[in-house]
Design a protein that fits this description.
This protein is of the alpha+beta class. Helices cover 28% and strands 23% of the residues. The strands form five sheets. Strands 9, 12, 15, 16, 17, 18 and 19 form a seven-stranded mixed beta sheet that branches. A four-stranded antiparallel beta sheet has the order 1-8-6-3, with no helix packed on it.
């Protein structure tokens, strides 16, 4: 009997792209085995199989957009009615046959490890990629996940066992990606505790943030912009906008100024090419902004911000922010950003280190503006100063260029007439 395997409930997302197909026609799969990998704005999601059996037909291709209920596979179900197929458990003895002591005694081979021979290994594409990067053979790793699934922590443990002999001998430990996990602590020994489930958004954004933080050499440049005159004009615009049902915030002006600064310093509107030797210069300007919602931060995107005026940007900011709070953002509303702005101005703070939203190479952080005495050459004058925190990927941007970008940005914010150029 054949069964359709469909996309399950994936929350508020729809039209999510298929980035990786994890099975092939003829494969035997078990219940809850990952079959495809979907990618939202925040992170990748693996879709598990709802039935055990043999893959007869694949109904999607990489790059296809799917939503809840979309058919992924046609599977000839097992007679066992959903129990794991015996063939699926076959690789387990192979994984367990290589015990940790043997790994510790035998250094990793000098030749780079590829995914050749990994086809029967139970691990996600991201774990496979990580294993190749740190040269760990997944066939020799014992998986601690469900049904023997190999987790990143298992690869890190194997890597640690490989470099242990070198460290014990007094030499430098090679690599650096094998970061040991934080030890688990039983906090209940010290007092009452409660385990609270993390919101779905935080669950899927956490790995993406972790990946960016580990892979990108972050540097943050802090500066201040004088927005005294700009804020007076903003308040005038906001008063008129209220009568028409929308608001004009400082973020609208910062988006306009950022686009002008990106045109002057194109490196901030680029991405690093996969080969690592080139920058991909983008000729479009899509500005993402972090929206605070009850379930966590989401990043809607103002598309073609260079072609929109302050009024249009302000209205779109309000509409996208409302959709984010209500859980109505669509996948397309959070894709394609070339530069991101994270504003904490309504809450407070003086500076922070925003995490670059890869594959972008920079992100601008805003905190609360404040009145400060500024010397005008003759006397101190009260001026409204806006803190700027620019985090950037040091592989694509150096410190001097970051400083120039901030100078351009604060010059634009300091003279609102230049925003109209």
């Amino acid at each position: 009997m054949t069964t359709e395997v469909k996309v399950p409930d994936i929350g508020d997302f729809s039209d999510v792209p298929v980035v990786t197909i994890l099975v092939s026609v003829g494969d035997t799969i078990a219940l809850e085995d990952p079959i495809v990998e979907l990618e939202s704005d925040k992170a990748t999601m693996e879709v598990p199989s709802s039935v055990a059996g043999t893959v007869k037909e694949i109904k999607v291709a990489e790059g296809d957009m799917v939503s809840e209920g979309s058919v992924i596979l046609i599977v000839e179900a097992d007679g066992a009615g959903g129990e794991a197929a015996p063939k699926d458990d076959a690789p387990a003895p192979k994984q367990e046959s290589s015990a940790p002591p043997k790994q510790a005694e035998t250094p990793a081979p000098a030749a780079p490890v590829t995914d050749t021979g990994f086809s029967k290994v139970h691990a996600s594409p991201s774990v496979r990629a990580y294993a190749r990067r740190v040269e760990v053979d997944l066939n020799k790793v014992n998986g601690s996940g469900r049904k023997g699934r190999i987790l990143r922590e298992d690869v890190e443990k194997a890597l640690k066992s490989q470099v242990a002999p070198t460290a014990a001998g007094g030499g430098a430990v090679s690599g650096g990606m094998g970061i040991p996990p934080i030890p688990a602590v039983d906090f209940s020994k010290f007092g009452p505790i409660e385990e609270i489930e993390m919101p779905r958004i935080k669950k899927i954004s956490g790995p993406a943030l972790h990946r960016s933080w580990l892979n990108i050499p972050h540097v943050t440049h802090n500066d201040e912009a004088d927005i005294t005159e700009l804020d007076k004009y903003r308040k005038e615009m906001d008063t008129a906008a209220k009568e028409q049902g929308y608001r004009v915030t400082l973020l609208s002006f910062v988006i306009k100024a950022s686009v002008s600064a990106l045109k002057t310093h194109w490196e901030f509107n680029s991405s690093i090419h996969p080969d690592g030797d080139k920058l991909i210069k983008k000729e479009f300007y899509n500005i993402g902004f972090a929206a605070d919602t009850p379930n966590g931060l989401m990043v809607p995107v103002i598309k073609d911000a260079d072609r929109k005026g302050l009024v249009e940007i302000s209205k779109e900011l309000m509409e996208l922010s409302a959709a984010a709070r209500e859980g109505n953002l669509k996948s397309k509303d959070m894709q394609g950003a070339t530069f991101t702005i994270s504003s904490l101005g309504g809450i407070g703070g003086t500076s922070f280190t925003p995490i670059v939203n890869a594959p972008e190479v920079a992100i601008l952080g805003l905190t609360r503006s404040k009145l400060a005495p500024v010397w005008d050459g003759e006397a101190f004058q009260p001026r409204l100063m806006q803190p700027l925190s620019l985090s950037y990927d040091h592989r694509a941007v150096d410190g001097a260029l970051a400083a120039r970008f901030c100078v351009t940005l604060k010059t634009l914010l300091g003279d609102m007439r230049k925003l109209m150029w």
